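Module 6 notes. Inverse folding takes a fixed backbone as the condition and produces residue identities as the prediction. Think of it as a translation problem where the source language is geometry and the target language is the twenty amino acids. Below is one complete input and output pair. Work through it position by position during the lab.
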């Protein structure tokens, strides 16, 4: 039981970290979009690609394609 609780705590912590990282990236994108009226699309495109990786990795579970958990 304690092992399951520890695993659940680690998954919850990872979920919170991913959430915080995405929120920080979104805030940065907003500030860049509001402050710089011209020529900001390359920076915003790079930030969007960076933000896409945690979404694909964590929420779409792409990491499970390479690391199968033993049952």
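Target side of the pair, the amino acids:
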């Amino acid at each position: 039981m304690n092992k399951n609780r520890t695993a659940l705590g680690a998954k919850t912590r990872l979920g919170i970290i991913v959430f915080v990282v995405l929120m920080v990236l979104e805030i940065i994108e907003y500030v860049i979009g509001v402050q710089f009226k011209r020529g900001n699309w390359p920076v915003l495109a790079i930030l969007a690609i960076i933000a896409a990786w945690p979404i694909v990795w964590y929420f779409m579970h792409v990491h499970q394609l390479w690391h199968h958990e033993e049952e």
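Reference fact for the lab report: The chain has a mean pLDDT of 84.
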